[in-house]
Structures are given as structure tokens and as C-alpha cells.
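C-alpha cells for Acyl-CoA thioester hydrolase. Go.
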Amino acid sequence: MSTAAEERARTPSESGVDAHIYKVFPNDMNANATVFGGMIMATVDRICLVVAERHSGRVCVTASVDDVHFMAPARTGDTLIFSAACNRAWDSSMEIGCRVIAEDSYRRESRHVVSAYSTFVALDADGHPATVPPLAPETEAERARHAEAGLRRETRLAHAERVRARRGGAATRG
């Protein structure tokens, strides 16, 4: 049996989720009569987890949510369409990006409502970080997301280092 490090690079399309559909009902609303953002965030996390586990072939956990951008509201009766893909893979971590579109199914009009970027870590059988296969972007858009993921990682690691230094070297958890 080969290890993840020995496996060939995988493309984003091999692990991606193209169109997970969620129909919005009144119980999904917040006090402003728009879709509750926490419901969308939980759904994004679950879908991104599927992508991370498909890419790595392992159990994964959410390590961070770097960005969640709410671009426009979704309302009762909208159909939410979630699409997610692995943007980049490092040693044991992967950035997964998710885009959410709200569609008015009656008029066939759609709008971009959320973009989110999360980092997942693959785990071995003992719960320790495990090596993941590299990512091989194929399209120009995938190569752009790959490069942008590197920038987000640099920002995340630099921020963690600044916090650690400010705390006198103490861990940044909690």
C-alpha cells in the first residue's frame, strides 16, 4: 500500500463538488428575512470537508477558516448552489475554496452570495497530521486559485507568528 507522499498529484476536478443543491425554506431565515449566515457556513464546512477527504484519501479536520465573504443575501425560495475545490495542497494541509450561488429558480436568475476559503489537515490513524498528495491545477483559473492560496497561507502564518511573538512565544490557541 502506497503512502500519500508516493501518490501522484491529483487535479482539482478529481475531488471537487460541482453543484450541491440546497433549497431555502422559511426555517433558514434570520431576523432580517435573509438566509442565516451560520447555516451557510456550516454547509460550506461540510462540503469543503468532503473535498479535503476526497483529495487526501484520509479523515480531515478544519484547521482554519481564512475568509468568508457574504456578497449578497439569499432569501426564502432561493436555491443555493455550492461548488468547492481544492485550491492547493501542502505537506498535510489543503486550502479548499467554496463558492455559493443563489438562484431564483422561477426566473432563472442567479447571484454570487458567498465565497469562502478554509484550511483542512489530513490525519493518520493515530490522529496526527498525515501527508497529502500534491495538487496539479490544470486550467488558468485553477492556477490562479493555487497562487492565491499561497498568498493566503503566507498571511495566515505571518499573522500567527506576530501573535505568538506578542504573547512572548506562547501558543496561539484559544
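The two ends are 38 Å apart (CA to CA).
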